[in-house]
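Task 17 of the worksheet. Students: predict the tertiary structure of the chain below and write it out as structure tokens. Keep your answer in the requested format; marks are given for formatting as well as content.
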Amino acid sequence: MFKRTVKFLGVRLSFVILIAILLVVSAVLGLMLGYGVLGGGNPSHVFNHNLWTEVLDKLNPTK
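Model answer:
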């Protein structure tokens, strides 16, 4: 009984970790695709800190 419970929890935990990894990968690929292809910029610039401060400054103009 204990082995079945541990195996079940291990399968569930690995499934949750796999889903979390897939969500992060899909978000990164979506950002790169959106900025690179649709936005006309360089896809690697998505990881640039200055780009995100500029975006946040445009979203919060009350600074």
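Marker's comment: The chain has a mean pLDDT of 90. The chain has one domain: 2-59.
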